[in-house]
Design goal:
Two copies of one chain form a homodimer. Helices cover 39% and strands 18% of the residues of chain A. Chain A is an alpha/beta fold. In chain A, helix 1 runs parallel beside helix 2 and helix 2 packs parallel to helix 5. Chains A, B: Its EC number is 2.7.8.28.
Chain lengths: 321, 321
């Protein structure tokens, strides 16, 4: 079974671990969000790709969900001693090595997809990890500018998410560069050849939404022969984790499991899973032309996540039939 | 008193610490060798400049003589896990931060002299540290090529020095790029305005020799109004530390305190200090037109080094008179 998953960071990575556990023999291609990539200290950092790679490769900081286990922070402390920031982005020493290797390869002319493949030779994540694009796409968030009366300014997604902790209103989310970006090699082919396409409970705006913003990807998913099934990142009107509700507001979408499904729409989604606490949302989703089931959606451990993945695959079979 | 010192790495740095102790009020400009700079992992590493900066700034690994105290090696271990080398160059986590800051500034368009000044804002070495040039100069060493019968190949100085530990014959030492290099801003002015110019017991070929290979610097030193006094890096026919004898052979110079003085020559040197064990060398040096004294030259501690520096300054006064 060939499965394609459009993934963001922590939610996507944890879902993938459950999916691999549910169907160990499946051929899984992950199309990873690169809109939250950022250049820090002259190095190219790809937080979502790395979270998937570290999580599936056994190197993740489990409690935190991102970054490396057993991490130390000598480099960051020294950079701060030089007065070089930002200090709000927590790069550890082990993590730095990944960004050093990536930056060196990119400087030598390798596209991000080739670099990601090379990094995965070490981590062996058990999936084929593709960046959505080899071109630079950078998600910016439009916020109020306290220095300009009534004015607004765009900040990098990481600044909004990590430094500001999404505590200020987001007026718009713009994947800068997406319009000019091309899908990375293999992305459209994987979608076309897939038996099932899954949207994990990743952020529908800044993770899955950014992947879909690369011209050609949305069209490929919408036109794919395979059933497309998603899992709600919103449970009981709140994000399962993270701050998805903040950026949903920016795109005018209510923070409910049903509203997210309707935001994706029936042209993309064939099936949608909501949590059992959101069972009353199923009728509205089905009315929008999307098959919907209510099942437990909390990724409390790998077993629970594997059951979620199995439910998603079962729903895919149901809509296929 | 304005003192200019042409310095390499460990020997130069330790001498400078003694000099500062001997004349705390002096205005010292250090013209640092950059011929042993190397790009590693996409980062620009300046071993000699950093050794001076760390030593005078209190961050040096005292026993080792180079690198940072309290160093850890998480980044290097991770790079090795990615299969990315070289492994023979021991960059620690703290040291990495210096190279990351430097590389980021150079990528942003700052010349090495401005970067060095910025790094020194943190370390406050108590001297003005100038790279010999903002242009790229890379010392290469010609060695036998075991893969080509009777053939030879050029390797980066660091590969010869650190990886091969100077254990293979060096047939030539070539400061690649030196002919096209210009002295960094302030270098020629400092030499012209100096009251004393000192050659510390640094390597006469790959440290002081490389500085002198930048067009304009040798001429400025030779033509300076100030007396020029050097200290022998060879004591009792052996290098005080390091492997200076290996590269002296490559330029056809005997490993004796007197031969090194004659290699520099009376057009550069006004005075020369040899160790007391080499007192029999003084006559030959003086015959070459260079005032010579025999004094203890082992930099066993800061006090002993300060006495050496004071002897060098006394000899400068003697030749000036």
């Amino acid at each position: 079974m060939r499965i394609v998953v459009l993934a963001g960071g922590i939610g996507g990575a944890r879902f993938l671990r459950g999916l691999k556990s549910a169907v160990p023999e499946a051929d899984i291609t992950v199309i990873g969000n690169t809109g939250d990539d950022i250049h820090l200290f002259g190095l190219k950092v790809c937080p979502d790709l790395d979270t998937v790679m570290y999580t599936l490769g056994g190197g993740i900081h489990e409690e935190q969900g991102w970054g490396r286990s057993g991490e130390t922070f000598a480099v960051k402390e020294e950079l701060a001693a030089y007065g070089v920031g930002p200090e709000w982005f927590g790069l550890g020493d082990r993590d730095f090595a990944t960004h050093i290797v990536r930056t060196q390869m990119i400087s030598a002319g390798y596209p991000l997809s080739a670099v990601t493949e090379a990094l995965c030779e070490r981590w062996r994540p058990g999936v084929r990890l593709l960046p959505m694009s080899d071109d630079r796409v950078e998600t910016h968030v439009l916020i109020d500018d306290p220095d300009a009366d009534g004015g607004r300014k765009a900040v990098h997604f990481q600044e909004y998410w990590v430094r500001l902790r999404a505590q200020v209103p987001a007026h718009a989310v713009v994947p800068v560069g997406a319009e000019q970006a091309k899908p990375a090699p293999g992305v459209l082919e994987a979608i076309a050849d897939a038996d099932v396409i899954l949207f994990p409970p990743s952020n529908p705006v800044v993770s899955v939404g950014t992947v879909l913003a690369v011209p050609g990807i949305r069209e490929a998913v919408a036109g794919a022969a395979a059933p497309v099934v998603g899992l709600s990142p919103i449970v009981g009107a709140a994000p399962v984790r993270g701050m998805a509700d903040k950026v949903l507001a920016a795109v005018g979408v209510e923070s409910t499991a049903g509203a997210v499904a309707r935001h994706y729409g029936a042209d993309l989604l064939d099936g949608w899973l909501v949590d059992t606490v959101d069972a009353d949302e199923t009728a509205g989703v089905e009315a929008a032309g999307i098959r919907c089931r209510a099942v437990p959606l909390m990724m409390t451990d790998i077993e629970a996540t594997a059951r979620m993945a199995a439910e998603a695959l079962a729903l895919a079979e149901e809509v296929r039939a």
